[in-house]
Structure formats: C-alpha cells, structure tokens
Amino acid sequence: MNSDVRLFYITCPTQEVSQSIATTLLKEGLIACANILPHMESLYSWEGKITSTQEAVLILKSTKDLADRVMSRVSSMHPYNTPCILVLPVEKGHEAYIKWLKGSLN
Q1: How far is 18 from 15, CA to CA, in rounded Å?
Q2: What is the overall mean pLDDT for the chain?
C-alpha cells in the first residue's frame, strides 16, 4: 500500500517550543500526531565553527496535501532563523493507523 503520509523531522531549542508548535498544529487540524524527544545533542557546522547544542526533536505526522501548510506554519512559529524542517515520505504503514491519521486532519 502506497501512502501519502508524511513525517516532519524538526529540531527545536526546547521541549516547550516543540509542545507549543505541536499543540497549535493539532488544534488547526494540520497534523494528526506529534512526538517529542526532549533531550538531544546536535553537532553542526555554523558560520565556520563546529557547534554543539542541546535541542528537542519534534516529529509530526500529516499528509502530502498538507505538507506545505505544515512547513509554513512551523516556520512562522519557530524561533530559529534557519530551522531544521525536513519532510519525509512514508512508503508503507499500518492501514488502520493511516486511516485514523487521515481522518484526524482538516
């Protein structure tokens, strides 16, 4: 079964920022579910220096049709100038879960 489900991988400065973004998108019907991994260390090159930052990972679940709206909404709420927002296609999934997910969206 092919799926139009999309996962969004987003890093946030804190768990609270992740919760705020997720709650807003749930209320707006743009996502069906969010997972927050509160303590993660990011290592990356920024402005010519290797940087280490404590962050939270936010994983959102939605569909291809809503992907642009989700990305735009996350960008407007996110405190970073250059937030990590990646959209990943879901090739397959449990049929009942995908049905629930799609039924939870506006």
Answers
A1: 5
A2: 96
